[in-house]
Amino acid sequence: MGRLLRHYWFPVAAVVEVPRGTARPVRLLGQDFVLFRTDDDTWGLLDEHCPHRGASLAQGLVDGRALRCPYHGWAFAADGGCVEMPAEADNPALRDRASIGAYRVETLGGLVFAYVGEAPAPLLPRYDLFVWGGVLRDVGQALLPCNWLQIMENSVDPTHVEWLHGHHLAGVRARAGLSTPERYRAHHERIGFEAFEHGIIKRRLLEGGAEEDDDWKVGHPLVFPHMLRVGAHLQHRFQIRVPVDDTHTRHYWYACYRPPEGVALPVQDEVPVYDVPWQDEQGGFITDFVDGGDIMTWVGQGPIADRTRELLVSSDQGVIILRRLLHEQIARVEQGLDPLGLVRDAEQNRLIDLPQEERKFGDGRAFLREALELSHVRHSPLRDTIAGWLEPSVLESGGG
Predict the structure, then answer these.
(1) What is the mean pLDDT of residues 54-58?
(2) Is the pTM of this model over 0.85?
(3) Three-state secondary-structure class, residue 35
(4) Gap between the Cα atoms of 346 and 337, Å rounded
(5) What is the spatial distance between Cα 99 and Cα 97, in angstroms, rounded to a whole number?
């Protein structure tokens, strides 16, 4: 599985977290790296430890075009080459021996992506939300103490919505004197899954719905192997599950907000990043919002879910499909073939539009208003701006 995952790009930081002239540690797929950005906006990703005495380069200084080890000042360029050893006479052969592992890094949509797998690297996919114009963006994040796969399996488990985000959430919030919309409790009459070139399309038919509804006709995608695309109308987002190691996952909520018609879009110079709290001061789960309930179930399965103890039933068909797909893609890699979803055609990669329901939740205003209280958005630095879009005075005047 590790070899399969190394065929894909993963976000390892938000751009705003790495100002020019700084470095920071990164852990991805059980391996430690250092991410740095020079004053001239060159990005580098290197193995974390200096080949001299093993000091952490994440504590080093970014000096012009290179990253300097804090211990003896050895300097490494973004390609991993050692460009200076301050206490030694210049010796190109010795500097060549000191070269360090270097990896591909690119920025897109306010995130920093890394590729740490085999050459040739595929293109960094330009999925729609990363490149759309006319939106505001923000990035929520949380480091979760569990394996990435039990989070991804949640993405092909549609029926949990009516209980976890419906009845259970309503019960938690009622005890605190808070209300919860009825929409989350709608019963699933039918669920369906369909493979496509970037993963799996998830469909649901809710009680009172019809096959002509977007929920069933269009659905929304699990983007293989580590993303889910959700939303409608005024809000769209990726949930990105980055495998830090076997027992930790960095979860990103990458959101795009479209203002209602006639409301001015403010200028956004950078994409902000914010933490999503999921534990209270006593270390208990915070479950009075949708994402908190999800985290409670993911983390509550343990650092690595023990699947020998589970009892799968007919409504778990999506979980079974995902597991089979993972095994199929492992087999492709073992045969020397590209796994699902890699992009190598630059023309195809100009913009990758992913299917997503649009005609749901009315005009989307009520759905967005609920997100301000019931989702990770309640912690966003953009929350007040987005709430302002929904004020009657703004909507009636058609301006912001």
Answers:
(1) 97
(2) yes
(3) strand
(4) 19
(5) 6
